[in-house]
Specification:
The chain has 594 residues and is mainly β. It binds calcium ion (CA). Calcium ion (CA) binds next to loops.
């Protein structure tokens, strides 16, 4: 609401004709009031007011309404171009040579003052207003001479940054607008939006100092464009002579209406559907970003985009933008990426025995992140995923994954296993039969554990001292070998070996003649000679120096001969025992093989 009684007339000047009364009052970024004035009308500026700096007509004026000076209700800014002139120029003048500046505006971002100056009957122009600038009228209309019709140029005349001719059909009376600084139409940001009163055309002029401007026809309205307007959000409006006010919107601007799944969670999936409008049905024509991270659009329609977010995206809140053909839609709410859950798969570990002590742990996280192992129970050494167990008992190993920017920590998984005593076995060599008068001998047995084997006599006429057997009579003997185990080994199964101790006997009394073994020493063979013939059931057995039976054969004295040969070429050198049994009588004799 305005108070009519607060009115204060700042400045008054005469208008010689009814037309060309100028366009606009606007405050610049410098806080001063800029006043666009027409040349007074009458066609062709017949009194040449625009070039006459003692007149306020055909000018861009600038005054300071916050201060007063002399008899004025305002002050003259200290840097107005003619503030100190002695030629009678009006100190309010900021720029001159205007015909009928039908709208000026200030680009609040840059401070640039834009003016659209309506031409006489040939050219419509756009000017960027500079302090003290002369914009040519009536000497020039646009870039062309007007009055004089030739040789009009003067040093310092400033040509328009853009113009169009009536002859082109583009229009016949320019209506200036604004440099667009809104957020709804990104393609227009920084461009000067203006139109033509007669044609209804509306353009965007892209002007950058030092570069060739480009001018784009945006659309054409039905009706006469009186003015453009701007709201606090820098949206632009068109005011028609009919009284209709239209808002300028970009009908191709994409809009984001929501997400599926809804903002807050994408769970285990990084695929999200963005719902909205004006998307491009060709997936590759849409650029979707979550913050600075670009998603991959895998399916698209005008109203939905299926997007795969890179799996490397950390958890957090992301502003989402969709850019289609240079137009960017921004979601009203950030999109939440929550940390994913992960689980650990840890293979069970079978129980072990002593010596079977190296375990390769097998665990993996569903995230693919590396699993870390720790020993919680038992004595063991970890090197990476290889566990070396020391000693017996229960071992518990934990597998954990601490998570990262994308994954929650995994629930810890434990595996326990027992390390038991090891089995062992005894290898006990067979024992050769012996004769009761033989010397003591050693038993040979080993345990697979390497532990010492213990012997005992299960039965028979022998005594034991450690592993040394002493014969004390004749008969069958059974020796038992055992290993009782220790802290690492179970007792070994007992093993028994049996042998026979034969009694010491003499030859058959009826063999009165001496029985000979010759030669002795022998090399490849020896002979047995008896006193008589007719003996058919005689058996010869030879034992090696360690008591092992090496030859057993039947000797035949049943025919006329009374001697028989025995081949020994395959035997090693040493002292052997030859045992000849005839019936129940036994004769023994040592034989040296050399
Ligand atoms: Ca001009």
């Amino acid at each position: 609401m305005a108070d009519p009684n607060s009115e204060l007339i700042l400045l008054t000047f005469n208008q010689p004709a009814t037309n060309h009364n100028g366009g606009k009052l606007v405050f610049g970024n410098d806080g001063y009031l800029y006043i666009a004035t027409g040349d007074g009308g009458g066609a062709g500026d017949p009194s040449n007011y625009a070039q006459n700096r003692t007149s306020l007509l055909g000018k861009i004026l600038r005054i300071d309404v916050d201060n007063t000076t002399d008899n004025l209700n305002y002050a003259i800014p200290a840097d107005n171009p003619f503030v100190n002139n002695t030629e009678g120029f009006r100190k309010e003048i900021f720029a001159y040579g205007m015909r009928n500046p039908w709208k000026i505006s200030v680009d609040k971002t840059t401070g640039t003052i834009w003016a659209a100056d309506v031409g006489q009957n040939a050219r419509e122009e756009i000017d960027i207003i500079e302090n003290g600038g002369n914009y040519g009228w009536r000497r020039k209309e646009g870039v062309a001479c007007y009055n004089p019709s030739t040789g009009c140029d003067l040093p310092g005349l400033i040509d328009p940054v853009w113009e169009y001719t009536h002859a082109s059909g583009a229009g016949r009376s320019i209506t200036g607008g604004f440099v667009y600084r809104g957020s709804q139409m990104p393609l227009l940001v920084g461009k000067y939006i203006y139109g033509d009163y007669v044609s209804g055309n509306v353009w965007a002029l892209d002007y950058q100092p030092g570069q060739t401007p480009t001018n784009t026809l945006l659309f054409k309205v039905t009706g006469n464009i009186m003015a453009f307007g701007e709201d606090l959000d820098h949206n632009l409006y068109i005011c028609l002579r009919s009284g209709v006010i239209q808002k300028i919107v970009d009908s191709l601007m994409p809009q984001i209406s929501g997400f599926t799944p809804a903002s807050g969670s994408v769970g285990e999936s990084t695929v999200v559907t963005i719902n909205g409008t004006q998307f491009n049905a060709t997936a590759a024509e849409n650029t979707v970003k979550f913050g600075d991270i670009t998603g991959t659009v895998t399916a698209a329609s005008a109203t939905s985009l299926t997007v795969t977010i890179p799996e490397t995206i950390p958890a957090g809140a992301y502003p989402v933008t969709v850019t289609v053909n240079g137009r960017t839609a921004t979601a009203s709410t950030a999109f939440q990426i929550i940390k994913f859950d992960q689980t650990i798969t840890f293979e069970p570990i079978e129980s072990k025995v002593f010596g079977d002590s190296v375990v390769v742990l097998q665990a993996s996280a569903s995230s693919g992140l590396p699993v870390v192992f720790t020993v919680n129970e038992g004595t063991a050494t970890l090197r990476g995923d290889t566990l070396t167990v020391h000693g017996l008992g229960m071992v518990t190993v934990q597998a954990s994954q601490a998570g990262n920017a994308r994954y929650n920590a995994a629930p810890v998984v434990s595996r326990s296993f027992a390390v038991n005593k090891s089995n062992q076995s005894i290898t006990f060599a067979p024992i050769a039969d012996r004769t009761a008068n033989e010397n003591p001998f050693e038993l040979e047995a080993t345990a697979s554990s390497g532990l010492a084997v213990t012997f005992e006599v299960a039965s028979g006429p022998v005594t034991l001292s450690g592993n040394v057997v002493t014969l004390v009579g004749a008969g069958p003997v059974t020796i038992r070998a055992s290993q009782p185990g220790n802290e690492n080994y179970l007792p070994a199964p007992e093993v028994e070996q049996t042998f026979t101790v034969h009694p010491v006997t003499s030859l058959v009394p009826t063999l009165t003649e001496q029985t000979l073994i010759y030669p002795n020493p022998a090399k490849k063979e020896f002979y047995v000679k008896t006193a008589g013939t007719g003996i058919s059931n005689s058996t010869l057995v030879m034992y090696s120096p360690i008591g092992k039976k090496v030859i057993e054969q039947t000797l035949d004295f049943s025919t006329s001969q009374n001697s028989a040969g025995v081949a020994i070429g395959h035997l090693s050198k040493g002292i052997y025992l030859v045992q000849l049994q005839i019936g129940d009588k036994v004769m023994k004799q040592k034989l040296i093989i050399e």
